[in-house]
Specification:
It contains 15 helices and eight strands. With about 375 residues, the chain is an alpha/beta fold. The strands form two sheets. Strands 1, 4, 5, 6, 7 and 8 form a six-stranded mixed beta sheet that branches. A two-stranded antiparallel ribbon has the order 2-3. β5 and β6 form a beta hairpin. The protein starts with 16 loop residues before the first helix and ends with a helix.
Length: about 375
């Protein structure tokens, strides 16, 4: 018998939102891990808010909604809140009921700015990695480090001279002597850098002064960028530390030194890295702080490689080089699926906070696959 479609829906729903989410959905395991880490961040949240006044949006819900934006690569806060309006899965993950109102996009953005700083995201990552169910997965001896270019929210047209002067007018470019001769006193158009050699010593972005010109390779153009750095555990490819620095020539090695020195414990450790880290200064600094540099040899460098047979003769060296390849998956996921191929915020502090949030999102997805549901239920 053919069924008939009811055009008027029911007035009330007697099925809870908890029952509508499948028990095997991966977001269930991720939410448990995130909730435990956010509970340990309660003292940090209390220090950020005043004790009096009108209650604001709970910081736990702000961070959970931001994690959803990273999980699904949602490109803007307006689109995120639009999906929160009708997506029951998103409402359940954030902790909203079916009838709870959704915040205005400007309210959400303004309240989230309080949490977008490097200190909060650093503590969030620390509490997540220090969880009782996560700590046994980590190694305290073998790590890998790498960096990537992060395109800033600035263009070539925003570049200005650091000394405040105007660039000279463009020379004639047409045929014949004097053809297209610029008039006296005529200024160069904004964003026109023909016949000018751009450099970080002479030009800086007016919209994001912290971003420096950097290119991925000789085949790519130089764009205002930052450098993102991560320290990965070799056992299960989990990120234990991250930093964002300016895109300088030695930024990757400087960040690697700082993160390696911050690894707890006075025991011997290993640090895998690519050829960019094969310099005498970096290798000597690693050995000074009791870290064995498992760096890929750069034999084409003038003077040869700084890594000799004392390191390469061990089996652990080859294992570290092989494990280091897993760090590229982190950058690939953050840029391709997390939507951070180009940032939509300016300033080192905010860029570092958003980068740290996406590192946390990557760890949560990986931990949801590594940890079995029975282990999480016992917590």
């Amino acid at each position: 018998m053919r069924g008939h479609r009811e055009r008027s829906g029911s007035l009330f729903s007697y099925v809870s939102i908890e029952e509508r989410i499948p028990a095997s959905h991966p977001l269930r395991r991720i939410r448990k891990l995130a909730d435990h880490a956010l509970d340990r961040l309660n003292p940090t949240f209390c220090a950020l808010y005043a004790t009096e006044g009108r209650p604001s949006v709970p910081p736990e819900q702000l961070l959970l909604a931001s994690l959803l934006q990273a999980f699904y690569g949602i490109r803007s806060e307006r689109l995120l809140l639009e999906q929160l309006h009708y997506n029951l899965l998103f409402r359940w993950f954030v902790g909203l009921g079916p009838d709870d109102p959704i915040w205005h996009p400007t309210t959400f953005t303004k309240n989230r700015e309080r949490l977008l700083n490097e200190q909060v995201m650093g503590k969030f990552l620390e509490k997540l990695m220090a969880a009782p169910e996560v700590k046994p997965l980590l190694s305290d001896e073998h790590f890998s480090v790498d960096g990537t270019r992060l395109q800033a929210w600035a263009s070539h047209a925003s570049l200005e001279r650091i000394d405040g002067q105007d660039d000279p007018p463009t020379p004639p470019s047409g045929p014949g002597e004097g053809f297209g001769q610029p008039k006296e006193g005529k200024k160069r158009a904004k964003g026109d850098f023909r016949c000018i050699k751009l450099s970080n010593k002479t030009h800086r972005s007016g919209t994001d002064p912290d971003a420096l010109l950097c290119r991925k390779s000789k085949a790519h153009p130089a764009l205002p960028s930052y450098r993102g750095h991560v320290l990965m555990d070799n056992r299960h490819a989990l990120i234990v530390d991250c930093q964002v620095t300016q895109a300088t020539g030695t930024g990757e090695r400087d960040a690697a030194k700082a993160m390696a020195a911050a690894i707890p414990g006075a025991h011997q450790k290993t640090l895998g890295a690519d050829k960019n880290y094969d310099t005498k200064g970096f290798v000597a600094e690693m050995r000074r702080i009791a870290v064995t540099p498992h760096v890929a040899q750069y034999t084409a460098r003038p003077g040869g490689s700084a890594i000799d047979g004392r390191t390469t003769r061990h089996q652990g060296y080859a294992r570290s080089i092989n494990a280091h390849r897993g760090i590229e998956k982190v950058f690939g996921w953050i840029k391709q699926w997390g939507g951070l191929r180009q940032f939509k915020l300016r300033g080192t502090d905010k860029v570092s906070a958003v980068f740290g949030l996406h590192v946390i999102a990557y760890n949560l997805i990986r931990l949801g696959n590594l940890l079995c549901p029975a282990a999480l239920a016992a917590v």
